[in-house]
Amino acid sequence: MSDTPQPSSSSLFVPALGGLYASLSPFAETLLRVVVGVLLVTHGFGKITNPFGAAGMVESLGFYPGVFWSPLLSATEFFGGILIAIGLLTRPAAFAGTIVLLVTVYFHWIVKAEGLAGAEKSIIWAAALFFFAIRGANAHSIDAKIGRQF
Questions:
Q1: Is 84 within 8 Å of 94 (Cβ atoms)?
Q2: What are the average pLDDT values for consecutive 10-residue runs of the chain, which has 150 residues?
Q3: Rounded-to-integer distance, Cα 136 and Cα 150, Å
Q4: Residues 77 and 136: beta-carbon distance below 8 Å
Q5: Could you list the residue ranges that cross the membrane (predicted)?
Q6: Are 142 and 88 in contact (CB under 8 A)?
Q7: Which of 24, 35, 117, 135 is deepest in the core (most CB within 10 A)?
Q8: Nearest 5°: CA angle at 150, between 83 and 86?
């Protein structure tokens, strides 16, 4: 979706760059979506190969039974990352990922008492995923190719 309002050339310090910004905006958004998706897949790969491996950790956060939540965490990261990267069911996949990342913010900030230093990456991840949960994918996505978005 390329309906993001672009600054008028009169509001730019260098008005001649307006066309460049407008033409690169869809590419930048697609690049961010693909990078976020691929890195989420990479992060979730270790969990998907051992889907019950995080059972104790999720139970320590109060999510019982861990044998239910651990595979769900694994699938959200791995398969959700694939969906985000290709732009299919982008909003629900990104929303689920946002929830997972907000839990990791709590885990690092509160449970492990690491504060901002420990939760910083999770906050950035959650913000990027929240962007796609609200925005959806753009024209360079399977959602756009099939003409349907969630």
A1: yes
A2: 60 90 94 97 94 92 93 96 98 97 93 94 97 95 90
A3: 8
A4: no
A5: 12-41, 61-86, 93-111, 123-142
A6: yes
A7: 135
A8: 20
What's the CA gap between 86 and 36, in Å, rounded? 11
- Please tell me whether residue 17 adopts helix, strand or coil conformation: helix
Distances (CA, A) of 99 to 78, 80, 136, 139: 14, 12, 16, 25
CA–CA dist 80, 76 (Å, integer): 5
For the chain, which residues make up each domain, given as ranges? 32-145
Q: What DSSP letter does each residue of 40-79 carry, written as one string?
A: HHHHHHHHHTSTTTTHHHHHHTT-S-HHHHHHHHHHHHHH
**Tokens, residue 101:** 């990342």
**Integer Cα distance of 86 and 142 in angstroms:** 6
* Residue with tokens 């961010």, as numbered in its chain: 32
Structure tokens, 77 = 């990261």
Cα three-residue angle 91-84-146, rounded to 5 degrees: 70
**pTM above threshold 0.85:** yes
Structure tokens at 21: 């910004």
